Records
---
Amino acid sequence: MYKLKCLNCLLGGAIGDALGAPVEFLPLDEIIEKFGPQGLTDYAPSYHRLGAITDDTQMTLFTANGLLSSYVQKDLKDFVSIARTTKLAYKHWLYTQEHPYSQDLPAGINLKGPLSNAADLYHRRAPGRTCISALKSDSSLTSNDSAINDRKGCGGVMRIAPVGLLVTIYDAFQTGVEIAAITHGHPSGQLPAGVLAAVIRYLYEGLELPKALNQAITRLKTYKAHEETLNALNLAIKLACDRSVTPIKAISLIGQGWVAEEALAISIYCALNAKDFRQGVLMAVNHDGDSDSTGAIAGNVLGLIYGLDSAPSNWLENLELREVISELAEDLCDAPNWKINAQLAQPYPDDDLAWRKYL
Ligand SMILES: [Mg+2]
């Protein structure tokens, strides 16, 4: 059951991302003009194919790989900061954005795991400027200080779902905040990532969405400068309870999702309002704003809640990088059961060694 939850969460996010990719920069009236009165209802070509993922899924995968590296290395080398290891993974992502694929990587770019040699990741898919500039300007590979900028774009929250699939509920919120802080210095660029990581964790552990949200909001209120994120979430919850407001109107009242608190709130609104995965992700991409990011976040949440049964079969079949997404999702589920042996020369007899690829 837990493996399926991990798969549905990451594959659901990637599907939402791929649905939103062709309309990321289109206002709703142009989406309707192009695709008809229902708006976008299926994959449309983007990046020369159907089902192309964008930077949101790329970075989500690097989050997953970074977390798993940290998880394995933490057991083996005392304490390795999760944020620091994840930053190394993001440095690897940055390299994929600026160089052609090569097996000979420079010093410091040495992520181990399913992404270490994935040639298909060497594509620029409208990467967030803050993510690129923060990772470029931070020459430190080891510091885990917060990014020195005042940015609150959604690049911190759209990549955070794997945190909720691996990190325990006690640490999920703070870990989400720290990982968003690698690139985003503004509290509203970080706290929505904490909320999403906690919501994902509570859903993973079996809570229903309203209760998961309540718990995450209680935690949010303990942080300084939480008001902007709290207000956006409260508006989403209020609108989801008001059936006299159409989803299109409600989303426009929340915002466009370019900033983190709006992207989170739009996604939560869609998850609260929809009756299944398909309806919710289509709601999350048909609006004026950052459709692929809201599609990705809503897809993570809706996949966990409803599974992917309502998705047309071509959404999974045509999804780019489906195999590597699935491998990382399964490893996130399995990791807590890995018997990681600190004596590397003496593996456990029944150890399947799946964890060794992250060393
Ligand atoms: Mg994107």
---
Amino acid sequence: MRCLVTGATGDVGSKVVKRLIERGERPRIFVRDPEKAHALFGPKVEMCKGDSSDPASLKPAFESTDAVFLVNSGPEIPRRDQAAARAAREAGVKRVVKLSSLDVEQGLAIGAWHEKGEAAFRSSGIAFTFIRPSGFMSNLLAWAGSIKAEGAVRSSTGDGKRAFIHSDDIAAVAVEALTNARYEGQSLPITGPEALSFPEVTARIGAIIRKQLRFEAISDEEAGIRYAAATGAGPEETEAHVALWRAIREGQLGSVTDTVERILGRKPISLDKWLDENAAAFC
Ligand SMILES: NC(=O)c1ccc[n+]([C@@H]2O[C@H](COP(=O)([O-])OP(=O)(O)OC[C@H]3O[C@@H](n4cnc5c(N)ncnc54)[C@H](OP(=O)(O)O)[C@@H]3O)[C@@H](O)[C@H]2O)c1
């Protein structure tokens, strides 16, 4: 199978590329910044320069490709997934593995964008697998600034829980789906090993860095203002994140699945392992 990886310079995509290289393959990658990609992978990949906002640039990347790992982000997900489904069908791609979200099951916020993206592939006639992860452990890096400056974490998630997942587990599952037909037509809901509240995660970080941290519950409104200020996100993206955190607070997104273990034959990576790897970011 000749694989194409989009989002190859991102958290999950870069790990998918590295895993394919480790398997002895030379994957094709679709990137908007070849220099950044070269610094990550050197000559071990075939580079296609393009931008998902320009559907015409997908065409040369998708041609002569058997399987695509697809990453699209933000409010543009439905439109960009539709364009990718069209390009994949026209190029004769055999299989698409889409990085989706566990929150599709609730149909809310970012999950609603992914639901529309998934629909484009369901109706495309191309074999698909939807990888549906819970919240990434790497999201916790967004807390590094306030932890370092004030010893504090602020969130509107209350005591609601989330089974954070390591992006290496997501990549490992994605590579399984890319490289064999067993998961075609399936949605794979994947989570980390345990559901934890954000105050519990705050305490785990404090234990690793040996610092007393405080968790402050904030309102939806304050969470939205802080998110927009920190990321520069527009109203639609900000409201989607506020809705996601509200759903966590309401206990809608705390499920734990055994999918990682079923597919990889081992337990998902623990939060403590991720914290060991990333402790320096919080000091
Ligand atoms: N974070 C979570 O908790 C969570 C949970 C469930 C699902 N998800 C889903 O996971 C996906 C994000 O995955 P990730 O965290 O691995 O991504 P990421 O680290 O944010 O990286 C995004 C990748 O997409 C590329 N990209 C962005 N805009 C592009 C464009 N216009 N054209 C071409 N490439 C473009 C980026 O390239 P550059 O290097 O050039 O920027 C980068 O390689 C999203 O679909 C999100 O909804 C996330």
---
Amino acid sequence: MADFTGIRPENVFRFFEEISKVPRGSGNTAGMTEYLENFCFTHNLDGGADDAGNVLLYKDATPGYEDAPTVILQAHVDMVCVKEQGSSHDFGKDAIELVLEGDVLRANGTTLGADDGIGVACILAILDDDTLAHPALECVFTVDEEIGMLGADVLDMEALEGRRLINLDSEDEGVLVAGCAGGIRVDSDIPIGRAVIRGMPVMVEISGLRGGHSGVSIHEARLNAIKALARYFRELDKVVAFSLCDISGGDKDNAIPVTAKSHFVVEEEDLDKVREFTQKFEARIKAEYTASDDAFRVILESGTPHKIPVMDPKSQDKVLNFLLLMPCGVAVLRDGQVMTSSNLGIVRTGVDRQTGIGHFVTTSLVRSVMKTQRDALADKICAHTEFLGGTALLKEEFEPWELTESSVLRETMQKVYKELYGKEMKVEVSHGGLECGVFARRIEGLDAVSIGPDIQNMHTAKETVSVSSVARTYDFLCKVLAELR
Ligand SMILES: [Zn+2]
């Protein structure tokens, strides 16, 4: 175990060490609920757990702060469980093994859980310290943030009196997150006609892409496997004639797809041309995307000629044009920040067994920090679908947490940050999701912000946190609370 002797803030790391012993993967957080209930008991605090396992702890205002508006401090207790290949770690029962190397704290072959264990530990350290000055505190520890903000979604907001919320789930010191994108899913369905032809069956598969979160990584222009495959066929079309059998790719609307594949049919004598084209295509794309996707690969396999069901030529054109022209990636950028984007996440083809009609279906996730821009881009995808004779359905809509014009929390934090560290605190709107959004949507007039220390490689076994950054963030947070009279 790491030795934290002499490392400040001592209490934050003591609590982080303690909760690192409690298994707390998303969906397995009962141990944390129990730990926090026990903390509540030993610290003589009011509060307790709800049916979902969320815990709410109250602490009174310190002398002189009785009239100051209540502050909500919030962090999520669950963590993403990822381990290195070959690691025997059992997230169901083993403690996270902490490794301290200079300023870097990491785990031994697993995610560290600094996201959001450091946020939890900071709140516990504040509750534990009777020398700090602060308004009345309502401390909210939510479960299952990482699998869809399930805890925050069912939290009883009536139990909260505070209208100022500080969320501790961000990962850039010196950045204050003051809004986040909303989203909407668009499911497109285009009927396709079928035919049967005789020819050489070929399978092509795009792989080796980097992928990533469709909110957090969309500005990095990583290659989308489905888009790459559409381009492959568009360019192949200039070399040989082919007929598509099927096309599939991606498996989550909120992840940039890393693989896509298709079966198609060519004349036997054209196979060599397809091979040659494929090699050149692979080299061309690799050269274009060396910065983001240097492991890009196109795999090609062929069989023996026989009779094969394919799309009719008109349907094939529809499918390929649809994929080629579908909006995907950053749509609106302002001052270097992504306002609106979409991700073509899933593509499938299939035949309805009852009707015998072929279907080509896709799922896109549209995100925007502005509801109206989100809806306009979703509508564009609907128009694109309808133009090709298909139908589009809008699903799983969630509203953005929009940047408010003024905010006492924001102004106080910017002032305190400058006083403490002599630099301006940056205000950003995140393109990913944050629990603040759930609170802001459900509590009228809520002033919310999100901060956190420098955390790298979240959700991977290489996750690290900077120890000195935790100290600065904690000092900053305590100073902000003292300012909120
Ligand atoms: Zn988190």
